[in-house]
């Protein structure tokens, strides 16, 4: 940071990122230097043959070129190790070294071309070891040159010829105010078009190019252009180092949800309340007073999670049963019978593997499947409807993200209105509103729910889903609430940027969300991403340690599975310092984002990318892993808590923030809690309601 500028272009790599590639190349060239030296010394007299003098010259020239490269690589490594992420002054000679190395490639390529011709020339009749060494060498060099070309493509910035000029702090001072605004506007327009083209070329072959796709490409391009604007000169490794530093800072202070654990942690004498709360008891009354409905119990949460898992079909089933999966599905699949697909199962594959996985995971009978739709496009997601006789309910289960089309639906994160009777200004995630409306239209057009309730007289409606499916399920429950006032929605790992605050509060009566540990998705939103960007910028700016030490320390922690002590040189306190606050350019960048963030928080939650701050839906059942060390050698221990939406206003950087989002991890945690009948304690004001172990009616005391 800033990005390296050579050949009048900005590249996606910094001058402190060349340590590892230079070291790898140094080791490879050193190995060849040793091999060639040994072969040359052992076969010094073997060049008196046809073509021998040419190979002799090639050996000497190759040794000379490799030696020069080795010296240059050591210089590059030494320079790249100097300075800090922000302080690039000790590395100001790096462009000269890059130019020198590029020039050295010219004679090397010419020399390798001649060596290739000499080594594979049939007229050359020398010792086998001599010729074979040259053949292997030239092949290896060509492979290395190809890998270097791939590396150049990876770090190539298509707009590097313009972006580094726009982001240069000296440029605005050389332009008048109107000219500066024009340049920045033109740059922003280019970035938007660039992201739109990237989305189009990346996704068109997989998701098609219909009207929905074009609109999604435009929306996502606008979002990425705004969020990843080139006003911050960061490289990918700068961001990675910032995340590492931020994690260390977060680990050094109590987590955001630690207050939840303190205010609702069960006592040692009793860790649970009955899974089914008796009506009329004191516990039931306190549950109602706190907005917790009786159906929001651990047994129901664990039960309906199986339906949310089942919606993913055979891919998730096979992921959870890598060895035995095919055998488990064999009985339900119909690859050999070749029947025509039934009317109520649409778009399944030839063997009906998705249907088989749904039956196995949800543990319902084939006759209880009312409808399955596996049609998948942007804004149109798969779902199924089944009768759950155990819970006496009609279940609508919506699939989460499993395809590139679903990703485009996730990324269409602009705000859109939701029509709710009695609620004005209801806003939500545009892509998930579109997906929920698609499911609603499908249910109404084919009269699927009418058929289901005709077969299940007196049953209740349950809507469930995971991730994208959870967001669509929550919005679908809002849309269906007028027709089915007693419906219930179980949203597992829902998106954090789903509903505006008033709408999220509105859903607390009929939506129960489940969040596992440090899952990133329920904390993910445009505003939280902007807050994360500000934190990363600030922590990078205050860091006085070289990037390679940050990366090495993180790798050491992962390999050794240890946490640094605060007194260690790698601790956060030693990484952060005010000594690097003499960078006016990055002072202005951080101040700009701080002002943008403050405006986003204060002014009705508005941000510069979206028009409204969005939140996760309903009552939130938060599951915290009590002892992570036990999960390596035994059954993990979990603590359940009731959380507020505001508790998920910050992203927690953690190695488990992705794995905690996986449906199998959520299901495992719920199964463990259900087996122990473990539910959160109920808070009423400042008192904590806890179940007594000898309470016969499930009543509780404060």
From TrEMBL:
Example of a GO MF term: metal ion binding
Gene3D superfamilies from the UniProt entry: alpha/beta hydrolase (3.40.50.1820)
TM segment ranges: 18-42, 54-81, 136-156
InterPro entries: AB_hydrolase_fold, DAG_Lipase-Related, Fungal_lipase-type
Keywords recorded for this protein, A-Z: Calcium, Cell membrane, Hydrolase, Lipid degradation, Lipid metabolism, Membrane, Metal-binding, Phosphoprotein, Transmembrane, Transmembrane helix
Iron-sulfur in keyword set: no
Top EC class of this enzyme: hydrolase
Disordered: annotated segments: 254-284
Enzymatic reactions: a 1,2-diacyl-sn-glycerol + H2O = a 2-acylglycerol + a fatty acid + H(+)
A single Gene Ontology CC term: plasma membrane
Superkingdom, natural source: Eukaryota
CDD domains per record: Lipase_3
Localization terms from the record: Cell membrane
Biased composition (Low complexity): 262-274
Pfam family, one: Lipase_3
Gene Ontology biological process: arachidonate metabolic process; diacylglycerol catabolic process; neurogenesis
Cofactor: Ca(2+)
Leader peptide range in chain numbering: none
Enzyme nomenclature, EC number: 3.1.1.116
Membrane topology recorded in Swiss-Prot or TrEMBL: Multi-pass membrane protein
Chief location: membrane
Domain Fungal lipase-type: start-end pairs: 395-524
Annotated protein name in UniProt: sn-1-specific diacylglycerol lipase
Source organism of the structure: Owenia fusiformis
